[in-house]
Design a protein that fits this description.
heterodimer, A: 265 residues, alpha/beta, Rossmann fold, 6-stranded mixed beta sheet, 4-stranded antiparallel beta sheet, 10 helices, B: 2 domains
């Protein structure tokens, strides 16, 4: 089911399309047939309790986890999958998956800035070494991005010398540097001290405001309500309820979602 | 402002006076006295006669060390990688190689290669006629081979730990941005593993230096062999050995210094 008929009629192109996604880790059935789609400009927030499969769902989009079955389309291009010799599903075309990944800006829970590079080196790494952008051009872009996330003065600092909030803002700059078609956020504030959450959320909210397509796994319900155009509540590997934020948070239908929201607040 | 001396000068004099504490002055005096005593009371008249040979030996020790460390490390990287992340059919032989080489004495390996392999080769006419023969009939290739293998085995183990110690998230981020396997290795995995291994590698290289005298047992004339020659020719025992100890100490100092320099270029201990 598409997010809403109004969006479908707007004619925006479909950036991410997921159909009947299943993921098993051994006997553990984490995703049990999830379908989801995001059009250009959508901000999809995925919420749910721990173990509901929300991070796995996000990580399947760029095949950091290989789905067991299902269809994933990025920018209308279907990721080709095949079964390997052990019977696991893996990307069939390494080139294709690398190309698709280089258009998706992923932001991790633990930042994962490369610790042996300064901040600016982190930001230009993928443009220069994967996308083939000229070094001085990449540096100019990176400096503008660092300025934007408020880290211009941390240009030549190594991640180990930055606070969690600064590292995460740096990681967002690294994601923006590839001019991503879609931004993927995997619980971007869960590893942060409470007083640092605000600065990161503010950067993400700015991105939402300028109409970036984003998929966001989060525990920050208030934030999801403010920035999301569409909210998906995942329970036990299935979409229990989805809809616009006013409906999900204002008038939840499912008992589990009601309980989930009341537990959070 | 102008009355005060520049802060740099104050720091320098303060540091010098801090460094020259009474116990240090006494230690320096003792060292100088020992040095003078050695110079006056021991025999050093043999030095001019063996000077050229000693230089050649020193040069041989150093190039054997440098070449085997570089070649050994180049082998250690795939050995470590195979054990840390390779499929079983690669990991198992790599592990077996490291275990066997680390589990047997270097002297034994050296002799097996030189007296064993080296004496087998001449029995095959096609080897004797090959272009490699001029090398295979000399001793140094066997010395280089066995020291390389030894360094590779020890460092293969070190690199296994270093590769395994790089946090998964670092590699995952690289994959998530579309890097190919080779690029992940070259840009992220290898540099971080190398930085992790560097302090250990410094120590292992010093050990490698002190393994080089074994090549004297297969007729390669390194600096140690020169000291033995002096003893056999002149029956002077302690002086050449003392000088030898000093030379090894100095080379060790240079190795430690060089690795410190490289380590200093890594601004952060990789988390």
């Amino acid at each position: 089911m598409s997010p809403s008929t109004a969006e479908a009629e707007s004619g925006a192109a479909e950036a991410i399309h997921i159909e009947q996604l299943h993921k098993k880790f051994g006997d553990l059935h984490v995703l049990k047939g999830v379908s989801l789609s995001a059009r250009d400009g959508d901000v999809v927030a995925i919420i749910g309790g721990s173990g509901s499969g929300k991070s796995t769902l996000l990580r399947c989009i760029n095949c950091l986890e290989n789905p067991t079955s299902g269809v994933i389309r990025v920018n209308g291009e279907e990721i080709k999958l095949k079964a390997d010799s052990h019977g696991h599903t893996v990307p069939a075309d390494r080139r294709q998956i690398e190309r698709i990944r280089s258009k998706l800006g992923m932001v991790f829970q633990n930042f994962n800035l490369w610790s042996h590079m300064t901040l600016i080196e982190n930001v230009i790494e993928v443009p220069v070494h994967v996308l083939g952008v000229k070094r001085d051009k990449a540096i100019a872009t990176a400096e503008a991005l660092l300025d934007r996330v408020g880290l211009a003065d941390k240009r030549d600092v190594y991640p180990a010398f930055m606070s969690g909030g600064q590292q995460q803002r740096g990681a967002i700059a690294r994601a923006l540097a590839i001019q991503p078609r879609v931004m993927l956020f995997d619980e971007p504030t869960s590893a942060l001290d409470p007083e640092l959450v605000g600065e990161v959320l503010k950067v993400i909210a700015d991105l939402a405001e300028e109409g970036r397509t984003m998929i966001l796994v989060t525990h920050e319900m208030k934030f999801a309500r403010e920035v999301a155009t569409h909210v998906v509540y995942l329970y036990n590997g299935l979409i229990e309820e989805e809809g616009p934020p006013e409906q999900i948070f204002g008038a939840p239908k499912s008992e589990r979602l009601k309980q989930f929201i009341s537990n959070i607040h | 402002m102008s009355v005060q001396p520049a802060p740099g000068i104050v720091d320098a004099t303060a540091r010098a006076s801090l460094w020259l504490q009474p116990h240090r002055i006494i230690l320096i005096a003792v060292a100088l006295a020992l040095f003078a005593a050695a110079a006056f009371f021991m025999r050093w008249d043999w030095i001019p006669q063996y000077y050229d040979l000693a230089l050649q030996g020193l040069w041989r020790t150093i190039w054997i060390l440098v070449v085997t460390v570089i070649l050994g490390f180049m082998l250690a990287v795939p050995l470590g990688l195979a054990q840390a992340a390779g499929p079983r059919w690669l990991a198992w032989p790599a592990q077996a190689f490291c275990t066997v080489i680390r589990g047997t004495p270097l002297l034994l390996q050296l002799w097996l290669l030189y007296y064993g392999l080296g004496s087998l080769f001449p029995q095959f006419p096609w080897i004797r006629q090959s272009e490699l023969w001029p090398y295979l009939r000399q001793a140094w290739p066997y010395a280089v081979l066995s020291l390389t293998i030894s360094y590779a085995a020890y460092e293969g183990e070190v690199m296994r730990g270093a590769f395994a110690g790089v946090p998964r998230g670092q590699l995952e981020a690289a994959r998530a941005y579309g890097m190919s396997r080779w690029k992940v290795f070259r840009r992220i995995w290898m540099p971080q593993a190398f930085f992790r291994a560097l302090p250990t590698l410094a120590g292992e290289t010093v050990l490698q230096l002190k393994a080089t005298p074994l090549v004297a047992t297969i007729t390669v004339v390194d600096i140690y062999a020169v000291a033995s020659r002096v003893r056999q020719d002149t029956f002077i025992v302690y002086e050449p050995l003392l000088l030898l100890a000093l030379i090894y100490l100095i080379i060790t100092g240079i190795i430690v210094f060089a690795f410190k320099k490289i380590e200093a270029r890594i601004p952060v201990r990789v988390a």
